[in-house]
Amino acid sequence: MKAKESFAGCLSRLELMELDACTQCGECLKYCPVQDVTGDPSVSPPEKIRIFREFIKATDTLKARLFGPDEIDRRLLEDFARAIFECTTCGACGEKCPVGIYTQRLWPILRREMVKRGLGPLGSQAEFPRNVEDTGNVYGKPAEERFKPWFPEGVEVLERSGIAYYAGCTGAYEAQPMVRGDARVLGAIGEPFAMLPPEEEVCCGFPLFITGQHDMLEGLVKRLVDAYSARGVNTLVCSCPCCVNMMAREWPLFYGGSLPFRIRHISQLVAEALRAGKLRITKPLRERLIYHDPCYLSRGVGVIEEPREVLRSIPGATLLEFDLHGRESRCCGAGGAARKVFHENAIGMGRLTIDEAVRKKADRLILSCPACYEKVNEAMEGYEKQVRITDIMELLAELL
């Protein structure tokens, strides 16, 4: 297959340098969650980089420019596309990379190149743009059902406020105990907050970004930013790590400049409220809690200590840690939209998380991500090892 365009054109200078810097040392293989459940080196980080460098060599060397690009086997392109979409984009490989390759951003950019060439996305990922266009969410579920089934009674929402809450698609449709807990805790803090109407709170764009389908992103981002800005918002709060990551790191790029408000994960707001005495937890919980750091919260935006501060504020609770935690946290399997296609991988990774929680004798596995919440609960179904799974704000709401 003749490649009509250079494979280097999709990459920044820094990303080209990162590809060139990979020494194929294999250190990242110890931390790759896909390797944990497949053991398949053909989908490993260094192999993906090696193959993409071959694509660049075939299309972007002096020889290719003078005499035309070399033939690239169609099967090799398809295998690479499958490998890049099987990745959970968790970024653990980059965290441990001796030369510092920023893989949490590199993999989505390589996915975009595969989409551009008609080699992605895979499976149901291809339905995302149409679903968002038709319903405002990647699940294709009615906008009028976004809040109604789970939003708690007695929590006041304003049309205009300096603080706004964004529930997100996965929380609203797939992890409702989590967002119900968010709303109850925000209500207990006592600071008025706004929300967009259900038909206006559309997808943040992360599922489209992460699967390389970028055509709609500028419009989505500007629509949301302008809607919150019009309501006088100066702080936008969200509990979904993928949404927070998208808002903090990618929205300014698609918006075309700095956002008119700041982005905060809900644990940051709650930790501040606890310190200020606006929120008090008096009900004791004599349980051993183990907290799983979401990839896009810890490695993505660096929110690590605040969730732990919240959990330590619970009287009687003991906080345990996974062997790999914080920036080194191991992916639970739900990331990068890979769970939509590679179901068995996601279940296998989720069960490894469950295994360690059980081994450490935790009474509860505390999550802080709707995708994790959805998939790890699914991994628990019919599994021989069992541990109670609770979202951090769901737990806090129970104790208020």
How would you describe this structure to a colleague?
It is a single chain. The chain has 3 domains: 13-120, Fumarate Reductase Iron-sulfur Protein, Chain B, domain 2 (Orthogonal Bundle), CATH 1.10.1060; 124-271, no CATH class; 281-399, 3-Layer(aba) Sandwich (Rossmann fold). It is 48% helix and 8% strand. It has helices at 13-21, 33-38, 45-60, 62-67, 74-86, 92-96, 103-116, 128-135, 169-174, 176-189, 206-210, 217-230, 241-255, 266-276, 295-298, 305-312, 343-359, 370-380, 392-399; strands at 157-158, 163-166, 193-194, 235-238, 262-265, 288-291, 318-321, 364-367, 388-391. It has a 4-stranded parallel beta sheet. Strands 2-4-5 form a 3-stranded parallel beta sheet. The protein has a two-stranded parallel sheet with strand order 1-3. α14 (266-276) crosses α16. The longest helix is centred in the last third of the chain and has 17 residues, at 343-359.
